[in-house]
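Continuing the series of single-chain predictions for the mutant panel. This is the parent chain; the variants come on the following pages.
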Amino acid sequence: MPTESTEERKLAAIMFTDMVGYSALAQRDDKVALELLEEHRRLLREIFPRFHGTEIKTIGDAFLVEFASALEAAQCAIEIQRALAKRKTDVAADRHIAVKIGIHIGDVVHRDGDVYGDGVNIASRIEQLAGAGGICVSMDVERQIRNALEARFEKFGTADLKNIKLPMDLFRIVLPWEKGAEPSAARASKKSPVLVPVAVLVILALLAGWWFMQRSNKNQQPAATHAVPAAPANAPDQKSVAVLPFVNLSDDKGSEYFSDGVSEELLTVLQKIPGMHVAARTSAFSFKGKNATAQEIGQKLGVAYLVDGSVRKSGDAVRIAARLARADSGQELWSENFTRKLKDVFAVQSELAETIVAQVRGQLTGGAAGSADKEKIQAEVQAAEKGGTKNVQAHELYLQGRFYENRHSDKSAREALSAYQHAVELDPRFARAWAGVARTHTWIAGFATEGGQKTFDAHLASARDAIARALAIEPDLPDALYARAWIETNFDFNWSAATQTVSKAMALAPADPNVLIAAANLETALGNTDRAIEIYRKAVELDPVNAQSRSFLAFGLANTKRFAEARAEYARVIELSSSAPWAHAGLGLAYLLQNKFEEAATEAQADAGEWARLLIVSCARWAEKRVPESDAALNELIKNESELAAFQIAQAYAFRGDKDKAFEWLERARRQRDPGLGDLLKDPLLENLHSDPRWNAFLRTMGLADDQLKTSGR
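Parent structure:
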């Protein structure tokens, strides 16, 4: 006869923990994943009883634990994160363990050895927002422990949790060892309120360092953009803001494109407000999924304010929670929830953009928006939407294309191209997607060698066609003008046309890092290296984690013999994306120019681009008088890459002092439209050619003779 089920209802604190990245690790190396999973379980199970926690169950890499009080649950969570943070310093990076923790206190039901109820459901939803190494708690928990816990709370804002009827205020616990955590002395003495602002000023005064920056053309490949930027040296402009990626709380995790789109729409519109500095998308989105404090984000992006929030789509409805907060303290200045029918997601985005722009402008300029301001804001939003689409699937594909394009590798460029092409198939009037098609075709033509001259010509022709389509739809689209300027500078060598295109793009989007890169590339081609470096620095300032401009600048620094800076930047390129062509070879070039030939060859051997690797190895071995090895590398370069690496072959011969062959290959590079010629005037590997009469003659064929440049209008 079956035993009758017993049920007990009580108030309890519920803690959910989840091991971050376990599924991905298991796919890569299931043996290591299982080892770390077991170690994670042992470590946490040692800690639970110390705070009177009762393990209810284990769900894969997650724990459900019950506590009699919210304080004990929070203390246990902090101890777990403390132990894992300490462990992190003692083991290799590939064996780090990170967990995220959510805590809520509420009514629960014990039945047959398990626990049910809203208290459990809410804790599980809160945990998802905590981030790696973080602790997220409900307002009920925060209210009970705020004066008893030796830690500071930072408000998340209001979140709409899946399957929970009412929106909830959430908080993260700022852990004592985190940057931005409040010193205990400041917490203990409320009689000295001046201590807090003084501490903030001291911290701001101590912030140091710009990340140095980089340069590359075909020789100098931009790297992927996943690292978090270093902090700017000065206090941020008070009219500066970053729009962080909104958290996707929808049941369908594939809806993340929509939450990203909300963030991107706001960012694009805010960039158009006169006098406002807005962190670029690449930098702001680099914090996605990271457990960074408001202070860290503000310092690293150089902004005074943060906009963040969450998005939940369910059926034909969408709920968006958004807030504006101070970056130096995390203090919330404004928050609001928007619930709308999802008949047109883009109408929802426009409404949200207009509302938040009005709020941000009011906070930063001191005053509510009047009717005239509202009309102006509406016009700004409409202007920001130019070149876009109303097709949800096309927009999702566009966002996917942007994601892959920013990785700056051969494989990711082709993935981006596929996404962009699918987007324009769904909406042939999607100008921004056409610009994406153009940019990726241009990238492949400039950096990939697979397929030879025929494939190169096809990509270049497709890029021109996509640019024409984009500009026919939206003549003032900076993304398309950027692609056109790139072709005019690096493939057509049409300096006059490039000057006009860059000037127009700069007038339309003076704070667009890509437009600045196009302008700097043109200055490099025309021999104005110092001016190019200045512009690259501006691009990096606007978008600290856009490694493309850093990579470009590194080559300029090497050319001007600032080797320490160049080496440091190339090392960062490798850290950002070791698979990007010219990442290792760029560092090898810096060593080569310093006569550190063995270091140059060793570093270049790891480069993903065969043409880059063979060039530096050939030059380094020649300088070491290891002629057979140098010949072998050069012969391999000629055999495998002659159709699309003529400029690199010319560089190798010029470095050897074989001027006849160097000029022969330079002419071939000109006929093949080799983008390496964009560095012709100041390229250090070509210096042996400068005294030869054929040098000036070749410059004239390129339109780069002194008298030609003087009459070009620059």
